[in-house]
Structure formats: structure tokens, C-alpha cells
Model the fold of this input.
Amino acid sequence: VAINAASSTLLRSGLPIGEPVGAVRLCLDCEGTVTFDPSLKQVESAQLDVLVAATRNDIVMIEFGANAPRAYRDNADNDNETETTIYANRSPGISEEVVADLLRLAHASIQNIIE
Done:
């Protein structure tokens, strides 16, 4: 919201700003559901948290946060070494295709914000 407000304010200020910038936050849960403007609870339990800022034509900033899927977190001891072993042996992750789809979805959503 802050990025959207700052961009709007600068555009209305008369300063020589080239084009508007918009931003969205979304998260992907372990079931593959995408949530826009997630609550803090949704972000904490999500497998992937993404903040994207973009102009009409380009993505200009991407910020990712990730958690191991709940099954991996629940099976891990409180010992960090055990959790690291789970990551190494099971390789939970998100494919490049899914990340690319999320970025396309975010960029398309930003178009509504900046128009």
C-alpha cells in the first residue's frame, strides 16, 4: 500500500516522474492457493510470500519470503540441524514455472492499480 500511495502522490505533485509504480503482495499456501493482500497469519503459514512492484511494462522489484511446507516443519525437531537435513534430503521447493506464473499474475494485477 505504501508504494502505491507514494507513487500516486509523486505523480500528482508535478515532479517529473516517468510513470506510475504499483505493488501487490501475494502468498502461495501449501495447497497451491494464491491469496492477494494476505493477512499476517496467512503470510506466516504460507509456503511463499511475494511482494512485487512494477510499472506498466516492467517488474522493477521482487521480494520473496519462504517457509518449508507445514509437513516438513511439523516433522522437524526444534533443532536447526535436523531442519537443515530435512531440506537437504527432501528438497521441498517451488518450481520456476510456479514462480513465473506468480510474477505474471502479480504484474497483471498491478495494471489495475496504476491505471
